[in-house]
Amino acid sequence: MFYYSRQIVYLNFMEAGHKVRNAGFLKLEEMEAAVKWNIRIKGMYEAESGFYEIRDETGSLVDKLLLEQGEGSYTRQFARGTMTRGGRSWEEICGIRITLSDGRELEGHWRRPEDVSGEKERREEAGRAEIRSREAAVRGEKQRVFSREEGERAGRQGEAQGISGREEGQRAGCREEADAVKQAEVLEAAGIEDRAQGPLKDTDTTGEKATDALPSRDELYEDKWEQLQHMYRTVHPFGDDRAFLTIAPKDFVILEKGFQKMVHNSFLLHGYYNYRHIILGKITHGGEDAFYLGVPGVYYDREKMAAEMFGFEAFEGKYTPAKQGSFGYYMKRVKI
Q1: Which of 61, 81, 203, 283 meets the CB 3.0–4.6 Å disulfide criterion with 86?
Q2: Which residue, 226, 253, 260, 264, is CA-closest to 138?
Q3: How far apart are the first and last CA of the chain?
Q4: Residues 6+ apart with CB under 8 A from 95
Q5: Residues in the chain with pLDDT values less than 70
Q6: Is the separation of the CB atoms in 90 and 82 below 8 Å?
């Protein structure tokens, strides 16, 4: 699993070196690629107003916090490795002190300095284990697909050796019908619908389009996106006017060369083998066209963290913001 840690650190209000009471907290969230601080302070003397320095356990400057009549808040999220004003990495900090007026201060500690290196090693190992697990799942799915294709080839060879064409055709028809029903159930559950023809019951598991539902691929167009719209099925997965194409990893030759290597992206392949399709769409912002690749999946915080590790930027589905367990697509901007 990917690394995630959350702590609530209570801040002690100290006066003349003695603890008076709790006066707030620091919520510290540490993730694989980011760290987030959320400080809340209240119940101080109303005379405490202005900017006050936040320093770490070594006395180095971290940042400044604004108090107004004894209350204030501070929120910041930053990438791992980002340095504080005092030149230390945020994730190395073990405690903070906020010096107020007249010898008063706030302080809080959450770990010993010697624990930092061990935490870093555990986090890195957790990330490596998650990647190994996903790659193993992709390899297993590839093997199952290969075995199924081998079985189909063996069936065709058997037919050539004298198996009744009619009986084999009936079996193939049953398999195709079952596959079509299964694919339609997945697409309907995902909310993918072709507005002109309804749910994509005539799309096979590789994302190819049915012959009788598509324009001719022999037509040529000057605009590449228009050309692709005449080559791949158009769908509306988010229930609005935005049109997306359903494609498969084997179609990544349509992307710019730098993005074709995504055919080896473990997160993308995992989503494709689960749902048998990927979407590609054009979105216009302020007169500028942008293209996005979408991998189907279910939203969970841990899954979102994994998606970000593999280069995906956002999640879009039926709900905004996304709800835990809801279906949608992990999106990444690409070029064609």
Answers
A1: 61
A2: 264
A3: 33
A4: 56, 57, 107, 108, 109, 110
A5: 1-3, 112-127, 146, 149, 154-219
A6: yes
Q: Which domains does the chain have, with CATH numbers?
A: 4-113 (2.60.40.200), 188-334 (no CATH)
Cβ atoms < 10 Å from Cβ of 197: 14
Which residues does 247 contact at the CB level (< 8 Å), separation at least 6?
Answer: 207, 232, 254, 277, 278, 279, 280
- Whole-model pTM above 0.85? no
Instruction: Give tens-digit pLDDT for 286-310.
Output: 888 899 999 999 999 999 999 999 9
Which residue pairs from 136-140 have beta carbons closer than 8 angstroms and sit at least 24 positions apart in sequence?
Answer: 137/270, 138/266, 138/269, 138/270, 138/273
> Which DSSP state fits 196?
T
Distances (CA, A) of 284 to 93, 132, 224, 244, 290: 43, 37, 16, 13, 6
- CA–CA separation, 84 and 60 (whole Å): 9
Element of type H or E holding 250? none
Residue with tokens 């093997």: 143
Give the H or E element holding residue 309.
Answer: helix 301-309
Tell me the per-residue pLDDT of 213-222, one tens digit each, with 9 for 90 and over.
Answer: 444 555 677 8
Distance CA 207, CA 234 (A): 11
- Which residues, in sequence order, are CB contacts of 212 under 8 Å at separation 6+? 202
Give the pair of three-digit tokens for residue 215.
Answer: 């324009």
Strands of 244-247's sheet in order across: 234-235, 244-247, 278-285, 288-298, 327-334, 314-317
